Amino acid sequence: MLLHTIQPLSLVFYRPEGQSYTYRQMHNGYLQGIQNRDGSFTLSRLISTDPGLYLDPRYFPGAVVPPGKLPPARRRP
Question: What pTM was computed for the model?
Answer without folding.
Answer: 0.65
